[in-house]
């Protein structure tokens, strides 16, 4: 039975802990893929070992663990309400802890493109091991936030794209004007697609009323659920490029044009060098956010261990 060890970790005076042998959680296989015998072997290492016979009798396997609420646990013979609540939470923590420890933390360079390219950024992706209704709620909240941001930034990007060519007071000419117009137009288009997709997905998932439908929905859309956040993030980067071009090559701003920098030395470059600390701290912020989520999982697991 890969990933399961029956060596107990003594924390409650009986030689058993709540999550069992940590090696079976942190270094083992995905608990959702365990068969009945594997799950029962893990259960034997926990303080719920007395219920192993009931789990074996009812053929409870890893694919059932996220659906074991108090009523279902009572129906298979877990009688005390306290044990029902503890066992249901332990199952949730078991799966989420395994998932979180399988997710690597990106380095600073990768974190700069964190929300665009990193596969496990979204809350919906992180909650893949949670209860289906919790997952649905988090996904809808995420889509609502994305649609709000996209709607607000469309009102910034689209007028800028339309006005850049028509109004000469922007102070841009030639290639910089083309870069500015294209970047703002692409940004506005991506924001629009993100807004539309977020609204459609939120409306669709809001109609789902049972756990099996929700699980089937997330399995069906796969990585499509990450498209709105990636479109929005790409749009933000595109908008930043357009604003950077606007600052660097604008004839009517207080900054010295790039073509005239050489007589003024490094002092004249200072406004443009602000890009680098901005990018670095954005990357560090995204990286810290990822680590904070990992820490939250670890603290939750420790709380269950003590409980």
**Span from first to last CA?**
28 Å
β content, as a range? under 5%
Radius of gyration: 26 Å
Please provide the count of β strands.
0
Number of domains: 2
**Helix content percent band:** 55-70%
Averaged pLDDT: 70
Number of helices: 14
Main sheet: strands, sense, barrel: none
The residue ranges in which pLDDT falls below 50 over 5 or more consecutive positions are 1-16, 114-127
- The arrangement of helices and strands along the chain is HHHHHHHHHHHHHH
Task: Please give a structural write-up.
- The protein has 307 residues and is mainly α.
- The protein folds into two domains: 23-101, Transcription Factor, Ets-1 (DNA polymerase, domain 1), CATH 1.10.150; 110-272.
- Helices cover 65% and strands 0% of the residues.
- Helix 5 (81-101) runs antiparallel to helix 14 (275-306).
- The longest helix is centred in the middle third of the chain and has 35 residues, at 132-166.
- Mean pLDDT is 70; it is low at 1-16 and 114-127.
- Residues 34-97 form the SAM domain.
- Keywords: Membrane, Transmembrane, Transmembrane helix.
- This is SAM domain-containing protein.
- The chain crosses the membrane at residues 145-166, 178-206, 227-249, 261-283.
């Amino acid at each position: 039975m890969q990933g399961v060890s029956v060596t107990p970790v003594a924390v409650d005076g009986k030689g058993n802990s709540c999550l069992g042998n940590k090696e079976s959680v942190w270094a083992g296989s995905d608990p959702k893929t365990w068969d009945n015998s594997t799950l029962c072997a893990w259960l034997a290492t926990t303080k719920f070992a007395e219920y192993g016979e009931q789990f074996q009798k009812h053929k409870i396997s890893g694919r059932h663990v996220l659906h074991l609420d108090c009523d279902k646990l009572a129906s298979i013979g877990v009688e005390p309400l306290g044990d029902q609540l503890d066992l249901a939470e332990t199952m949730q923590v078991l799966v989420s802890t395994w998932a979180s420890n399988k997710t690597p933390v990106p380095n600073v360079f990768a974190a700069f493109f964190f929300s665009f390219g990193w596969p496990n950024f979204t809350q919906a992706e992180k909650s893949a091991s949670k209860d289906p209704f919790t997952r649905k709620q988090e996904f809808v909240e995420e889509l609502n936030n994305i649609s709000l941001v996209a709607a607000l930034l469309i009102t910034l990007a689209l007028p800028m794209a339309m006005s850049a060519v028509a109004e000469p007071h922007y102070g841009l000419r030639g290639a910089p004007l083309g870069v500015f117009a294209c970047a703002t137009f692409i940004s506005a288009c991506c924001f629009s697609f993100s807004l539309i997709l977020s609204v459609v997905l939120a409306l669709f998932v809001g109609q789902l009323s049972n756990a099996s439908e929700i699980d089937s929905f997330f399995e069906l859309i796969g990585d499509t659920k990450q498209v709105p956040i990636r479109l929005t993030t790409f749009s933000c980067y595109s908008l930043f490029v357009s604003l950077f071009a606007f600052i660097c090559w604008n004839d009517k701003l207080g900054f010295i044009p790039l073509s005239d920098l050489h007589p003024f030395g490094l002092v004249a470059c200072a406004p443009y060098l602000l890009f680098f600390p901005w990018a670095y701290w954005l990357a560090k912020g995204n990286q810290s956010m990822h680590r904070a989520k990992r820490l939250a999982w670890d603290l939750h697991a420790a709380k269950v261990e003590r409980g």
